[in-house]
Each structure stands twice: as structure tokens, then as C-alpha cells.
């Protein structure tokens, strides 16, 4: 359970830092492009960082399916398990 909390918090914190927004704005249902202004380059940089942080491989086709914060967290958790 501790891993889950830390992973989710780390992902949300990383998004907030990268996009210069308050972490409270990075909700599970926040739309990455619409609410947080994440563009394709931002998403590529975030996923690259998460690959290193969690020691996982994130296929490029997976990132095209990411729309909200929960999608990203779900993919990372799925790959980590």
C-alpha cells in the first residue's frame, strides 16, 4: 500500500513541477492537455522521467492513450507490477 501512495504522489508531484501548477490541480480526473496544458513534448519528457524513476519500459503507443492523470498512473502501475 505504501508503494501505491508514493508512486501516485510522485507522479502527481512530477506533473505539477513540470507544468508549474499547484499539486492540488493535478487530480486523478484532470485532463493532461486541457486542464494542465501538457503537450506532446511535455508528455514525452514526463514518461522518460517515469521510465527512469520506476525502472519500467513505457511503449510509445501507450502514451497516445493517455488523456487524464489517472490514465498515466494506471499505465505506470500496470507496468510496474
UniProtKB/TrEMBL annotation:
Localization (cell): Cytoplasm
Gene3D superfamilies attached to this UniProt entry: ACP-like
Domain Carrier: 11-62
Pathway linked to the protein: Lipid metabolism; fatty acid biosynthesis
InterPro entries for the chain: ACP, ACP-like_sf, PP-bd_ACP
SUPFAM superfamilies tied to this protein: ACP-like
Pfam families the UniProt entry points to: PP-binding (PF00550)
Domain of life of the source: Bacteria
GO MF assignments: acyl carrier activity
Modification after translation: 4'-phosphopantetheine is transferred from CoA to a specific serine of apo-ACP by AcpS. This modification is essential for activity because fatty acids are bound in thioester linkage to the sulfhydryl of the prosthetic group.
Keywords carried by this UniProt record: Cytoplasm, Fatty acid biosynthesis, Fatty acid metabolism, Lipid biosynthesis, Lipid metabolism, Phosphopantetheine, Phosphoprotein
GO cellular component: cytoplasm
Signal peptide range in chain numbering: none
Role played: Carrier of the growing fatty acid chain in fatty acid biosynthesis.
Family: Belongs to the acyl carrier protein (ACP) family.
Name of this protein: Acyl carrier protein
Amino acid at each position: 500500500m505504501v508503494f501505491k501512495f508514493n508512486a501516485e504522489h510522485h507522479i502527481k508531484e512530477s506533473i505539477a513541477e513540470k507544468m508549474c501548477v499547484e499539486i492540488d490541480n493535478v487530480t486523478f480526473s484532470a485532463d493532461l492537455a486541457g486542464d494542465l496544458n501538457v503537450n506532446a513534448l511535455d508528455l514525452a519528457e514526463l514518461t522518460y522521467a517515469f521510465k527512469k524513476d520506476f525502472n519500467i519500459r513505457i511503449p510509445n503507443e501507450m502514451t497516445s492513450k493517455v488523456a487524464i492523470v489517472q490514465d498515466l498512473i494506471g499505465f505506470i502501475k500496470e507496468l510496474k507490477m
